[in-house]
Amino acid sequence: MKTRFAHFLSAGLAGAALVCAAAAHAAPDEAQLAALVQRHAQAQNSFDQAALKAVTTEDYVEISPLGEVDSREKMLSFYAPEQKRPAPQLQLDETVVRQSGDTALISARLSYTINQDGAARSFALRAGYVARLVNQQWLLVSAQYTGIRPAKK
Fold first, then answer.
1. Architecture of domain 29-148 in this structure
2. What angle do CA 73, 75, 80 make, to 5 degrees?
3. pLDDT tens digits, 23-61
4. What are the structural domain ranges in the chain?
5. Tell me: the pLDDT tens digits for 51-80?
6. Nearest by Cα to 140 from 75, 92, 80, 90
7. Most buried of 75, 90, 122, 143 (most Cβ within 10 A)?
């Protein structure tokens, strides 16, 4: 009886370990996905075309705060080295990650501060991203930006 119980217990523990391992593997890698969005935002801010290519898929689509739909090529042309201008300070926060299999939805707030004529001007956008796992690497498939109205004073 003792042997049968020990065998049952060890089989049960092994099964539980497999279930836990599977759950851990299926859990979203929130830090990795948040870092992907951070790299994308920083690459845009610094006009780093190589980094933008590295973090986006070939079929990437971006929707601007004005509602314009841009292909990856159009987005990359906007960030060409000759287009570079002084970058505002960027802060990314309020990141939320939701994963379903090989697809993830990420939202974040992008806050910018620009110094113009000695005065600081701030504005913020809410960004929604779709990422897909491609060859064991997370890449952005799309981004959509919506302006956040400043708080009324």
1. Roll (3.10)
2. 90
3. 344 444 888 999 999 999 999 999 999 999 999 999 999
4. 29-148
5. 999 999 999 999 999 999 999 999 999 998
6. 75
7. 143
Query: What residue type is 53 in one-letter code?
Result: K
Question: What is the tens place of the pLDDT at every residue in 5-17?
Answer: 444 334 444 444 4
The secondary structure of the chain, three-state, reads CHHHHHHHHHHHHHHHHHHHHHHHHHCCCHHHHHHHHHHHHHHHHCCCHHHHHHHEEEEEEEECCCCCEEEHHHHHHHCCHHHCCCCCEEEEEEEEEEEECCEEEEEEEEEEEEEECCEEEEEEEEEEEEEEEECCEEEEEEEEEEEECCCCC
- How far is residue 138's CA from residue 20's CA, in Å, rounded to a whole number? 23
The side-by-side arrangement of strands in the sheet containing 119-134 is 69-71, 56-63, 137-148, 119-134, 103-116, 89-100
pTM of the full structure: 0.77
